[in-house]
Design a protein that fits this description.
By secondary structure, the chain is an alpha/beta fold. It is 38% helix and 21% strand. This is Lon proteolytic domain-containing protein.
Length: 263
């Protein structure tokens, strides 16, 4: 003989699978990465014990000031990011929840992803060198440029590497430094033709830049709104679309003459 369940018993029986489902959802892996401000590196000096820019075949300058490339640190491509992690970091200003494929290429093989990021950095170094030497009207067959950013992967340091090469070879073109003695930071990809591209993670990179003393941040113009969203106090944004435009903006900052773009 079947007995009738009381209302509390019915609710308990019905709630059990719902609770189980919610628990599964909270701890199930999601296609997101959690990122935070990473290291910055002055491309005019050393990083991880090695000189970032080494030039032979042409005289180089002693430079003042800094040109700091910026990075983010994200959970690994094989990390387990749950709904709890997403909710816990969503409103944290020094954390960002990003789609996994915005940080890492498609695929689950960690070694393949690391190789992809290394290849991206190597290609970025080559295009940064080409863009800088072309800007200076110098023959790449006569000048040897070696770039080393240690374990940093990806193409986002391209703009700063090009500017570092230019500063070491020519400075501001008037006997001074391209930085004007300031701590300049920034981010952006670069093409061989000198076009600057967007990179992602800009709000976190501005925080890293200000933390390490930068007062000026070169940002791809397409990412101005992202950079402004959580801009640290004391950091000036300078939007750029080309290497030539970045050089002109730094010269204007240094001399106080000419227009400096603003977001």
């Amino acid at each position: 003989m079947l007995s009738r369940l009381t209302r509390p018993q019915v609710l308990a029986v019905c709630a059990a699978p719902v609770v189980a489902l919610l628990a599964t959802a909270v701890f199930a892996p999601l296609p997101f990465a959690v990122a935070q401000p990473g290291a910055t590196a002055d491309v005019l000096k050393e990083y991880q014990g090695d000189e970032v820019i080494r030039i032979s075949g042409a005289p180089t300058r002693d430079t003042e000031g800094q040109l700091r490339m910026t990075t983010i640190v994200a959970t690994g491509p094989d990390a387990h990011v749950s709904l709890g992690d997403v909710l816990g970091n969503w409103f944290d200003t020094d954390r960002a929840v990003m789609p996994r494929d915005a940080v890492y290429p498609e695929g689950d093989d960690v070694k393949e992803i690391e190789k992809y990021n290394f290849d991206q950095m190597r290609e970025s170094q080559n295009t940064a060198t080409t863009a800088a030497l072309d800007h200076l009207d110098l023959d790449g067959s006569d000048i040897d440029v070696k770039l080393d950013l240690g374990d940093v992967g990806g193409p986002s340091a391209g703009l700063l590497l090009s500017l570092g090469i230019i500063d070491k070879l020519e400075g501001d073109g008037r006997g001074g430094d391209l930085t004007g003695g300031r701590i300049i930071a920034g981010t952006g990809t670069i093409t061989a033709g000198g076009k600057v591209g967007a990179v992602g993670g800009v709000p976190l990179k501005t925080q890293a830049a200000r933390r390490d003393g930068a007062t000026v941040f070169l940002v791809p113009k397409a990412e101005c709104s992202d950079a402004q969203a959580e801009l640290p106090e004391g950091l000036r944004l300078v939007p750029v679309t080309t290497l030539e435009g970045a050089v002109d903006a730094l010269r204007a900052l240094s001399t106080g003459k000419g227009e400096v773009p603003a977001c």
